[in-house]
Amino acid sequence: MDESFAPPPPMSSSQHNHVKRMLNSNRFKSPSKTIYSDRFIPSRSASNFALFNLSPYTEDGCSCSPYGSALRSALFGPSTPNKFESPNIFRFKSETRQSMHSLSLTPFTSQDVLLPGYDYNHKPLKRPRKIPPSSFKVLDAPALQDDFYLNLVDWSSSNVLAVALENSVYLWNASSSKVTKLCDLGVDDSVCSVGWAPLGTYLAVGSNSGKVQIWDVSQGKSIRTMEGHRLRVGTLAWSSSLLSSGSRDKSIYQRDIRVQEDFVSKLSGHKSEVCGLKWSYDNRELASGGNDNKLLVWNQNSTQPILKFCEHTAAVKAIAWSPHTNGLLASGGGTADRSIRFWSTATNSQLNCIDTGSQVCNLVWSKNVNELVSTHGYSQNQIMVWKYPTMSKLATLTGHTYRVLYLSISPDGQTIVTGAGDETLRFWNVFPSRKSQNTESEIGASSFGRSIIR
């Protein structure tokens, strides 16, 4: 049976108006309600920005609050314009070519203050220590010999500098700048080496005649003269009460100033003049360098070397033990070699070799930082400061016009003194103090200027 549909009953006036409002809802908005879309864009109408002292918009409608500026700088870098050109801050900009590595991944807290233009990925670089390029004091040293094989300058633990000029030894007090004459060997002899005892009370003086004198500085008199060498004594090294002397006669004598004998043992190993001697900081090993291009290592009881290093191709005068690493030894070669070599006496091996381009005359290691200084002769006459173990060059100091043959370091470890055949002694601030890298040394602060040693 066919079914027929009856027409709907007519709508009342109220029903008609309700349908009309639904069909035209885009034109009619409730004045009392906020319409939310399915994109979940939150409304800020109920946000209380005044509570946080923030303003969501400026008068021109741009979101340029302090928080927004800082966040924009952190996300997009300092080159981002001060005002966004569009409400959509994540729109594509072809001119922005920021690397993803430039975006900081460090979480922000309410305590953080973001600085525009600051790279939050990297810690600020440590400011390098500034080493003054010029000497701060110069002493005139008339007749200071220009001889590679001699050692005529030494600085004591009591802050007194000993300098040998021809046949005399002079003492310069670094605290008072007072100069005194300690001794005169006479016209028939000359001083070839000086060396302070560890406590700074006794000074050993090696002569051209082969004798070694021990002077009591406080009394100003010689307390002993020791013989044994047949030729000049060009190098001296102390280890407590034991004094080692190296000579042109190729031998090394061990002398104990507490016993009556002139020497307690004789060390034979070099085939030419002994020009460098240094005891290790623990007083267990003695390193010797010679004009035979050899670097030898001895212990307290040996009469023959326990280690031999033969890689240098010129005389080895420059020797320095590391105060930071046991068994670490540095040596420098003469004009035909020009290199600084590093050795481990624990493993009997060479660790590194650096070509300095110039004759190596002296080496000294800093006690305060892991750095060392080398002085040079032919042909640059310069002073170099090195960082160990990278051996990066921290400074190159110039001022001497002759080979920088003599080098010693102050007791506080901050200042070095250098001597040359130009008859000058120059003082340089090259190392920081143990506590501060900006502390000026006592010598540099109190004794600026130029004076004469005699």
Radius of gyration in whole Å, from Cα?
A: 39 Å
CATH architecture of the domain at 137-434: 7 Propeller
Q: The biggest beta sheet, please? A: 5 strands, mixed
| Helix proportion | under 10%
How many β-strand stretches?
Answer: 29
- Distance from N terminus to C terminus (CA atoms, Å) equals 143 Å
- β-strand percent reads 35-45%
Roughly what is the average pLDDT, rounded to an integer? 82
Assigned CATH superfamily of the domain at 137-434:
YVTN repeat-like/Quinoprotein amine dehydrogenase
The CATH class name of the domain at 137-434 reads: Mainly Beta
Spans where pLDDT lies below 50 across 5 or more residues: 1-5, 58-63, 82-115, 437-442
Number of helices: 3
Looking at the structure, the CATH topology of the domain at 137-434 is: Methylamine Dehydrogenase, Chain H
- Tell me, briefly, the overall form: elongated
- Structural class category: mainly beta
Order of strands in the sheet with the most strands?
26-27-28-1-29
WD repeats: 184-225, 267-308, 397-438
Pathway: Protein modification; protein ubiquitination
Organism: Vigna angularis var. angularis
Domain CDC20/Fizzy WD40: 139-428
Structural account:
A hairpin with a 5-residue loop joins strand 22 and strand 23 (371-376). The chain is built from 3 helices and 29 strands. 35% of the residues are buried. By secondary structure, the chain is mostly beta strands. It holds the Pfam family WD40_CDC20-Fz. WD repeats lie at residues 184-225, 267-308, 397-438. This is CDC20/Fizzy WD40 domain-containing protein.
